[in-house]
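Summary of Year 1 activities. Much of the first year was spent building the evaluation harness for sequence design. The harness presents a backbone, in tokenized form, and records the residue chosen at every position. We chose the following record to illustrate the format because it has been used consistently in internal testing since the harness was completed.
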């Protein structure tokens, strides 16, 4: 029987693509914080580049069989670092409210804790559909916010409307994120309850 050909070597290490997001996210905030038309436009372009790297690293890893245990941890860390940085930047320029940023942080911190609890009990906590929806809404929503900010700077007559669109988009992002938290909490409540009481893990025979 003929063996299947081994996957070709990736043209670039997916972890290198992931690493690009770490210095790029603060640059987005610095450009945004200038509150100038060119700065906001640059921030929007860099924010789009962030999303592209998020798609690219996973695609390269899967296509070339370069998925690693380190990458499985590094990618979500980089995503969280990027999202928090951008949302804090949006808060700094009065696009997002503080409670929105706090809610988003609490959700991700809580789900991370749930995963740690599962790991201590040797249980694999699968991703839920709400988590995937949350990621898409945050990614798309962030782009809409930056586009609205650019329009507000380039078309002064639309400044107020653009600000309303940006804030409303952030509200939708926050609501979806909160919904995802409750979905994870309810879905994994038995795991958390058993861990709380130190009940032995039930294994399927």
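For this record, the design step produced the sequence shown next.
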């Amino acid at each position: 029987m003929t063996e299947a050909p081994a996957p070709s070597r990736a043209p670039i290490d997916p972890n290198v693509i992931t690493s690009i997001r770490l210095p790029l996210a603060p640059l987005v905030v610095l450009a945004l914080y200038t509150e100038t038309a060119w700065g906001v436009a640059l921030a929007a372009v860099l924010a789009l580049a962030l999303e592209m790297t998020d798609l690219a690293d996973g695609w390269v890893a899967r296509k070339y069989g370069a998925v690693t245990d380190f990458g499985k941890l590094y990618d979500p860390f980089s995503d969280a670092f990027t999202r928090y940085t951008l949302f804090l930047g949006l808060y700094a320029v009065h696009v997002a409210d503080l409670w929105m940023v706090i809610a988003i942080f609490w959700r991700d911190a809580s789900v991370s804790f749930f995963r740690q609890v599962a790991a201590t009990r040797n249980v694999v906590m699968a991703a839920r559909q709400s988590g995937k929806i949350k990621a898409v809404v945050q990614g798309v929503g962030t782009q809409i916010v930056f586009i609205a900010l650019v329009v507000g700077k380039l078309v002064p007559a639309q400044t107020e409307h653009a600000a309303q669109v940006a804030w409303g988009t952030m509200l939708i992002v926050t609501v979806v994120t909160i919904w995802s938290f409750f979905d994870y909490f309810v879905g994994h409540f038995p795991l958390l309850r058993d861990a709380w009481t130190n009940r032995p893990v039930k294994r399927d025979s």
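Residues 14-196 form a domain with the Four Helix Bundle (Hemerythrin (Met), subunit A) fold (CATH 1.20.120.1760). Quantitative recovery figures across the full test set are reported in Table 2.
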